[in-house]
Design a protein that fits this description.
2 copies of one chain form a homodimer. By secondary structure, chain A is of the alpha+beta class. Chain A has helices at about 10-20, 35-65, 80-90, 105-120, 120-140, 145-155, 285-320, 345-375, 380-415, 425-435, 445-455, 460-480, 485-510, 515-550, 555-570, 575-580, 585-590, and strands at about 65, 75, 160-165, 180-185, 190-200, 210-215, 230-235, 235, 245, 250-255, 265-280. In chain A, the strands form 3 sheets. Chain A has a 5-stranded mixed beta barrel. In chain A, helix 5 runs antiparallel to helix 7 and helix 8 (about 345-375) runs antiparallel to helix 9 (about 380-415). The radius of gyration of chain A is 24 Å and the shape is globular. The mean pLDDT of chain A is about 95. Chains A and B meet through helix 7, helix 8, helix 9, helix 10 and helix 11 of A and helix 7, helix 8, helix 9, helix 10 and helix 11 of B.
Chain lengths: ~600, ~600
């Protein structure tokens, strides 16, 4: 059975040494988020995820969720109890507002804990994850009364939450959605329609489920300008605010999926269910998108998380599995064969994964830190910079980290040979679970379009210009360090190529938007690689400083070795992406649709 | 439910127009393989695969195979009947020797029919596929008596076959195998041991199952030099040559796999089962490897086949699914949205798949033709060339076509958005089934090592030098055709870079074999891309000739458009692979094993 051990040394390295997240404690909002307290939470989470959640991962995959004739849903053995532990450990409220019972932990620490949950058991982690999203949406857009009514219970974990967006005929294009909302005399609405792919839509873990649902109020404009957001609880609340009468919103079916079997992905039927408008009429997407941007960071983190757990198990296997001999002669002479980790190609797959994971971890945590700083930093220009960077990085983190994480997870499965294909070994599940992350919260192609079509050009390209300036300053500051020359050269080269791609897209996307669309995914990967090159630059500087400072910990030289792999063996992809972008749309658009 | 329609127009293009396989009829062995006869068989196969096998694909996935307490195995509903149809249609003997009841069809036509079966239902196709392999092994290595005893029934499809190689502790490294064979007074052997991952190891389709099993005769040398090959029938034969007494070889368990659920992948227990030595003692691997080389072409073909069926369904979906608007303004103004095929990125995924598939098809068929010619051509130098090319191309076809086919199949799944993750839509199954093709018959990393470590240097590098010369001649012949300049430039450039990589590996692999190992998979991909560039060159020449000859069929200009995509958007990967190769082994070997 596969195992998971939170990579807590590396997490602390990024959090404390590279990003210095302790800087947050200078702000009142995060004054209590000192390193000791936060690390204690991480340690507790590490223990819980490896001991409780990881062993339930295969169980969830094999049992799946069961819908009964009355529409109720049973989650896999142990999930309910594990969720109870999450609640009892106070983990549901970690990142939420103290005003409603939360702990107000910085998002950057929270995402580190979230990485552990997702790695240990992605299907399980989605139950609290969706609840966090729904809670956040109410925090952002709800009235004070709505907040008072729903947040304390959700933050305590007594009630869970969901997001109801997709309908059978519309996913990406929410403007087509048909679910309708009819205003009632008491100010509530009756919601009618069908939603699909609703994660955690129905289950047996909580006393109530708070559905957030996009619907169109009767008479609202067509398209995206007529969409409103509603709170639709599974049980309406009685006078004391406790779950009372059943609301007619129910699970019509559970989807049979490639992965995340332990999460109940439901078809949800709303039959004149009572709903409460969040914020203004027809402005539902605004709230939803604020919430979704954070959710996209979380999905990018899932890409890292599956890649991490796949890596851990593949590394164990590669050191354990005895098969064949090293090309340079036996390394395990007394044994019948050498462990397969002696083979350069096995190491290639492991290092590709390790170098990606560690770079991705830094990038996700950095983005989460920027989000924290955006809320507390005293300087408006700095806050604006945080917002700019997040706009730019969010689609990259979602799209690139899941695209690349899929590849690395498949590579890790490959290391197991035939055993990788056998479910009992667990590697197949990582691949199958991972697969959804490329699709949900906006398919990766949509992320790339968001990046190229919106984020890049926003405010005259300010975000990327600022980031480029920051990288230039970093290169100037560290360019003289001979030990780090490969890192600096790699980063500089990546930045130059990214700039060339950006210029090409700017010039050619104007004349024909299809030129931008045709290069969008390649560009997203270039930005991903460049971001990781920057992260590796920062990490290399930190590691080198520790070495120069006399540290004997192997962690630091190993960090540099791993980073060198990234620079030498992963950055060459930049050229291929650039060349593809520069071919433009014509080779893609020339074929008549009928000829496909 | 997904569908499959054999791409028969494209298959005929490759077979008749590009490769001119009718040339085979000039040789006595294939005198009856005229185009009309062969095409009639393809048409019949097309009908059978789309109408019978394709609808059973999902059934096989959902039901899987069931092992009963007595060790017997039931295949999914409809499989047994479909196999009966295969037999009744005379398809089992298509490629086998007429001497034992086969039809003696050229391998190149046979692989075209095989592509259809694998695309429609990979799990099913493996039952006849394994039987073909076992039949071939007996044809190659068996005594005349063994041939007379087993071949007629296997070629008639009454008996099926299997290959028993892998054991729990050894897959790649067969030298470690422990299954033992004890000589008996009557010349037979008693075979004892456990084999795993035995495809089609037990089932309900045939009257007997002829297991080919690798084992070590008592007292044989250790390692690969002490391995012998045995025939072990499920039922021993009575005096009339019919299945009689049960031989103690049985299915101990069925593996739970990521995909190909419809194929019974068995743990096989040999408990002093009666076996008959094939060929000489301790020379079992020789026969096995001849057979496996053909099997590797078939696995490469599976990569193409899954990518093809995934493509077909994704293309249908992309033209059908209405969502969002084209970047350049509405294309379906009267509808609520445009079909998603208007988007460059959707087209990118489709074209990447289509251009790969069509190139891969030409490459696999070409290799199969070379194999046919190797057996019949009058000129020894030509036969030697065929053998050289096959040595070089076999690992590339197996490794590159399945690596790349995996990516394209995942891309096709991506086009379905959320529906791609739902099993009912069938795209998940293509990905899950496909996955094994990167692993079995020698994992792709092993293919790459075979290519770089053995095939490249054989006979002083003769194979690649000859192939390069052939490509040079082709470029010279077609270099003046302005319509084809992109194809010729692309091919020339690819060849130049491949040569640079080859030189680097030759020079640096000598001093340190790990340098060769570290670049092996990248090199395999470079050779795959260059081979496809050559195929696309040939296809472009053929298509252009048809256009110049006045053909009005859209097929030809569309072929050129698809090929242009390959040249402009897929060949840029050459640079990335080359750069990675040239970093050598050091970045991979620097990390201590304990640090992974």
């Amino acid at each position: 059975m596969p195992s998971y051990n939170a990579p807590i040394r590396d997490q602390k390295f990024v959090l404390n040494e590279v990003l210095n997240v302790a800087q947050l404690t200078q702000y009142e909002k995060f004054a209590e988020a000192d390193t000791d307290t936060m690390e204690a939470i991480l340690e507790q989470s590490a223990k819980f995820t490896s001991e409780v959640l990881a062993p339930l991962n295969v169980v969830g995959d094999q049992e799946g969720c069961i819908r009964h004739d009355d529409g109720s849903v049973t989650t896999p053995t142990g999930f309910k109890e594990a969720y109870k532990q999450v609640v009892e450990n106070g983990m549901m409220g970690l990142a939420h507002s103290p005003e409603y019972g939360g702990m107000g932990m910085p998002g950057v620490w929270h995402i580190a804990a979230g990485e552990m949950q997702s790695a240990a058991n992605m299907a399980f982690a989605m139950y609290p994850g969706l609840t966090n999203g729904a809670t956040k949406a109410i925090e952002i857009g709800g009235s004070e009364e709505q907040k008072q009514t729903f947040l304390p219970k959700m933050i305590a974990g007594e009630w869970t939450g969901t997001m109801n967006l997709t309908e059978p005929h519309c996913g990406t294009d929410l403007g087509l959605l048909k679910t309708k909302a009819v205003p009632q005399a008491d100010g509530s609405y009756k919601i009618t329609g069908q939603k699909i792919f609703i994660s955690a839509g129905e289950h047996d873990m909580s006393d109530n489920i708070i559905h957030l649902c996009l619907a169109r109020i009767e008479g609202a404009p067509a398209g995206v300008k007529g969409i409103s957001l509603f709170i639709v609880p599974k049980f309406k609340l009685d006078e004391d605010g406790n779950p009372g009468e059943r609301n007619p919103v129910s699970c019509g079916a559970i989807e049979h999926k490639m992965g995340i079997h332990g999460n109940s992905t439901c078809v949800m039927n709303f039959d004149e269910a009572e709903g409460y408008l969040i914020g203004e009429e027809n402005k539902g997407l605004k709230v939803m998108f604020v919430m979704m941007n954070r959710a996209r960071l979380d999905v990018g983190m899932q890409g890292l998380a599956q890649s991490e757990v796949a890596y851990q198990n593949a590394a164990i296997y590669a050191k354990d599995r005895i098969q064949g001999r090293a090309l340079t002669g036996p390394k395990n002479e007394d044994g019948p064969a050498d462990p397969i980790i002696v083979h350069p190609d096995v190491r290639r797959m492991l290092l590709e994964t390790k170098a990606f994971n560690e770079g991705a971890r830094a990038l996700v945590y950095w983005a989460a830190l920027l989000e924290d700083l955006e809320h507390v930093h005293e300087d408006e220009a700095f806050r604006q910079k945080c917002d700019d960077y997040l706009g730019l990085l969010t689609p990259v983190i979602k799209g690139y980290l899941t695209d690349k994480g899929m590849q690395t997870t498949i590579d890790c499965q490959q290391i197991f040979g035939g055993h990788g294909f056998i479910e009992e070994w667990g590697m197949s599940q990582f691949v199958r679970d991972m697969r959804i992350a490329l699709i949900y919260e906006g398919a990766n192609g949509i992320q790339a379009l968001d990046l190229v079509g919106r984020k890049l050009a926003r405010h005259g390209g300010r975000a990327l210009m600022t980031l480029n300036g920051e990288i230039d300053a970093f290169l100037k500051e560290n360019g003289d360090n001979e030990n780090l020359s490969e890192f600096m050269t790699g980063l500089k080269d990546a930045k130059t190529k990214l700039t060339e791609a950006t210029m090409w897209l700017m010039q050619n996307g104007m004349t024909n938007p299809d030129n931008a669309g045709a290069g969008s995914v390649d560009y997203m990967h270039m930005m991903g690689l460049t971001s990781l090159a920057y992260m590796w630059g920062m990490m290399a500087v930190t590691a080198q400083k520790a070495i120069d400072g006399g540290s004997n910990e192997d962690f630091y030289p190993n960090k540099l070795i791993t980073g060198r792999y990234f620079v030498l063996r992963m950055l060459p992809m930049m050229d291929a992406h650039l060349a593809k972008i520069k071919t433009g749309a014509e080779p893609l658009m020339a074929l008549e649709a009928a000829a496909f």
